[in-house]
Amino acid sequence: MLFFPLVTTLPVAALAAILESLWGYPAVLLEAIGHPVMWIGTLIDRLDTALNLPEYSERKRRWMGILALVVIVLVPLTVVSLVLQIGYAVLPPPVMIVVQGVLTTALVAQKSLWTHVRAVGTALRREGLAAGRQAVAQIVGRDTRVLDEAGVVRAALESLAENFSDGVVAPLVWAALFGLPGAVFYKAVNTADSMIGHLTPRHAAFGMAAATVDDMINLPASRLAALCLIWAAPAERRAQARAAVRRDAPGHRSPNAGWPEAAMAGALGLRLAGPRQYGGTRVDDVWMGDGTPNATVDDLDRGLVLYRRACALLSVLLLAAAVLSMIAL
């Protein structure tokens, strides 16, 4: 059972957004059984080891990557389908909407993202630059040892903006369309992209399918994330946020990340993205926004407030859509 009407899926997404903002993923569950992303990650790692062999040609690696992505998607979807079939056989549909909503919270990173980004500001204030670099290294892939305080804050804000799109908005959009299976499908592809969708000698060919599909399925969410950030911005900054998105987002090397990053930059009066280092290699990305690059810890606080307002706005939109779907029934 993988397909549901919007009168079911919209309440699932709205419920997941609200509940996850309250409790996140419980630490007791993480310690006891791990996290669904960890389970998917284990599957990806095993497929990477078994199918991405160094003696394979580049063409064969691409085909093996397509096969791996199919398995990465089908395995969790099959498990979810069996769980839902059993659930709907023994529980009434309204109860199963709640069950789907609760289970979907595990695939949304609303609260954990806020916690990790806030930790960067706390570290900078209490322990200084070295601690801030260490904290931001938990959420970004760039070289943090070369960052000054402004660079640490910018990295945290960029991560906040990008992960608002692919860690919060995207799974909720797919849940709004297809319920729990939609969120599982999205998270499987997104996790695959994060693990094997890199332009490295090992994964450039094998991870091409994961990276390509992830770019495609994130297109709607990245645009919606930018809109939420613009609407959540202070009234006097909304025009600048819109202008930054129109002007700068298309120039980002990612077809999706530039949208929320540009909106965040414009809303805060900052410049984000720009040149940075990965593995000792300088990457000359374009700047998002036309404000100052000298971001401070206070700017990080403002970014977190903006993020919470955007999350609340998204929850309201989902809840309104859910209510309208039930009224129209």
From TrEMBL:
List, alphabetically, the InterPro entries matched: Cobalamin_biosynth_CobD/CbiB
- Example of a GO biological process term: cobalamin biosynthetic process
Q: Principal localization? A: membrane
This protein's membrane topology, according to the annotation, is:
Multi-pass membrane protein
Q: Where are the transmembrane segments?
A: 26-44, 65-84, 310-328
Q: Which keywords does UniProt give here?
A: Cell membrane, Cobalamin biosynthesis, Membrane, Transmembrane, Transmembrane helix
Q: What does this protein do?
A: Converts cobyric acid to cobinamide by the addition of aminopropanol on the F carboxylic group.
Name of the protein = Cobalamin biosynthesis protein CobD
Q: Which organism is it from?
A: Acetobacter tropicalis
Starting at the broadest rank, the lineage of the source organism is: Bacteria, Pseudomonadati, Pseudomonadota, Alphaproteobacteria, Acetobacterales
